[in-house]
Amino acid sequence: MRIGIFTDTYTPDINGVVSSVVTLEHGLQAAGHEVYIITGQKNSLHAHWEGNVLRLPGVEIKKLYGYTLSTPYHFEVKREIEALHLDVIHVQQEFTVGFFGRILAHSLHIPVVYTYHTLYEDYTHYFNVFDLNSVEKISKKAVYSISRMLCNSVSGIIAPSEKTKEKLIGYGVRKPIYVIPTGLDLDQFRYENVAEERRQGLRERYGLDADTPVIIYLGRIASEKSIDMIISGVRFLQSPKCKVLIVGGGPSLDDLKKQAVDEGVSDRIIFTGAVPPSEVPVYYQISDAFVSASTSETQGMTFIEALASGLPLFARPDEVLEQLVEEGISGYYFTSPQEFAQKADAYLALDEEKRKQMKAAAIARSNPYDMHTFAHNVESAYRNVIDEYREDYEVTKIRILDDVVKVTLENDSQKEPLKLYMTMEDYFAYKITVHRYLDAGYVQSLQEQQDRIKATRSAIHKVLAKDLTCKELYRYLTQNKALDADSAQEIVDDLIERGFLNDERYASEKVQYYASIGYGREKILRTLRKKGIDQETAAEAVGVLNEEQEEESALMMAKRLKNSVKDRSKKMKRQMIVSKLMAQGYSSEIARRAVEQLDFDDEDETGALEKTIAKAQRLYAAKNSGKQLQQKIVEYGVRKGFTADSIRHKLEEQELIEDE
């Protein structure tokens, strides 16, 4: 295979990514593959080749661990890379050279593999200098979103550990994830492969006697590595001659030196600064154990290097170390500075035979990470990705609708074109264009999203046609569109975020509408709650209604009701109107005050009584007569709110009462 590895950091830089890239490069070359490294060159103006390494112009960013950042596109070298006829592009990082690799891959129709080296959610403190919860939440959400976009836009992802894979799945990554621990050229760390004079020269450089115990930390000097815990632990070390060697450079170096002085342990700690990669094995081999308090590792390359050098590990509990550290066998776990010191003293007090056993166990734990095994596993991932990439679909037509994009996709293996919807977010994130190729895995994920995308479209149209609460839309999606509860809630949350749904706005607008058609405060509250508005939001919305407005509304409603209540006594009419106003949500006090303002004249009362008597006669005359009929009429009139005396008086006037 012809493989292009795009990385923002490469030798002479020193970090885990460089170690991984160099190891992979050598392993693939040993397996007979052609490997080309495309990387940046510090403070260079022109691209140039150094053997199989193409160095692009860039600028060193010291705050970013000395990474070289380049422009995301290089017109002058595109043709050179195209002429390499690469089978696969392997992107190692998320920065400018990585973006260049992604752009070239899409342009040249080459599959992309991406190694997710760094769990960036552990690095959000660089953006949250004031340690604000709100900033932390926003930063982590951005990490999830960007990581999801970066991973879902390639053909395959390499994760160095199960921990990393689980994180990516949690972010929403849908592409194939291959768990491949980064390998190392373990031979360079073997004791017998380093000359004794090199070890002796390094000890003399730092004034270390042959019988001085040394515990080493090697790696970036940055806050997420929690090196401050190690320095605090030195205060509790009882082994009088033990020294702690802190090897590496980074943004926290000066702060840690000051901490060592402040805690009175500067005479027991040696800060070396950055060292050449060729000297790293020697630093391990003048040491007796390795320590790191970091829990931000995706794999922990320095842990493996230390094991290969025969050093037991002191580490904080972390799932990425489960296969590396076995308590008392290949190392020790600690959770506090005091526990680190206690276990370090216990280890240094072991007899020579036990120390040899732990050294052998450490070396054995490193063996599975041999570079040839690593290269073989990555090669297998390449082949899987290339095979799947041949099934990719070409975008032949794009139609932008109001809220989604409809794409037509064609593939030689398909008789009919696929017509699928995609979200605007995906359309812009993946830079979809006509003649762009989409890998089969992504197309499959698009197919799986169709029901949800269609349901989202339907939901938007429903909301635009009629005001809905969040609960009403949720019911619509679960009942009419047969979505499961989680999918329906995700769509509701999405439309809330996009401004299509807003229960506070809905409640505020509906309060005014309901008040205008005669609803009282309590009925408005009941109606809003029935539609899914929570009690607090509904109460706040109704709170804008003042008592004067409500009384005016109640009076208007009472006047309308007066015309609908007929053939009743004035007392009964008042009672009925009060009851109806209360049913409309007005308080009993407001209802009574409204009714008191109504004018019921006596002439209306007399006419209502005459109509009531006439109706009673029609109802009961067929089966009753005489006093029995009179009694029925009186009972009927009383039920309508008239007094018995007024009914009998009217009957006398009409000469309908028989003499005794």
Q: Any chance you could write out the topology, listing elements then pairs?
A:
Blueprint: E1 2-6, H1 16-30, E2 34-42, E3 48-50, E4 53-61, E5 67-70, H2 75-82, E6 88-91, H3 96-108, E7 112-115, H4 133-152, E8 156-159, H5 162-171, E9 177-179, H6 196-205, E10 214-218, H7 227-234, E11 243-247, H8 253-262, E12 269-273, H9 280-285, E13 289-292, H10 301-308, E14 313-315, E15 331-333, H11 337-348, H12 352-366, H13 371-389, E16 393-400, E17 404-410, E18 418-423, H14 424-429, E19 437-438, H15 440-465, H16 470-479, H17 485-497, H18 503-516, H19 521-530, H20 535-542, H21 547-564, H22 570-583, H23 588-596, H24 602-620, H25 626-639, H26 644-653
Parallel strand pairs: 1-2, 1-6, 2-4, 6-7, 7-8, 8-9, 10-11, 10-13, 11-12, 13-14, 14-15
Antiparallel strand pairs: 3-4, 4-5, 16-17, 16-19, 17-18
Helix pairs in contact: 1-13, 7-11, 10-12, 16-17, 18-20, 19-20, 21-22, 21-23, 22-23, 24-25, 25-26
Model description:
This protein is of the alpha/beta class and 660 residues long. Helix content is 49%, strand content 14%. It contains 26 helices and 19 strands. Strands 1, 2, 3, 4, 5, 6, 7, 8 and 9 form a nine-stranded mixed β-sheet that branches. A six-stranded parallel β-sheet has the order 12-11-10-13-14-15, sandwiched between helices. Helix 1 packs across helix 13 (371-389) and helix 21 (547-564) crosses helix 22. The longest helix is centred in the C-terminal third of the chain and has 26 residues, at 440-465. The termini are far apart. 38% of the residues are buried.
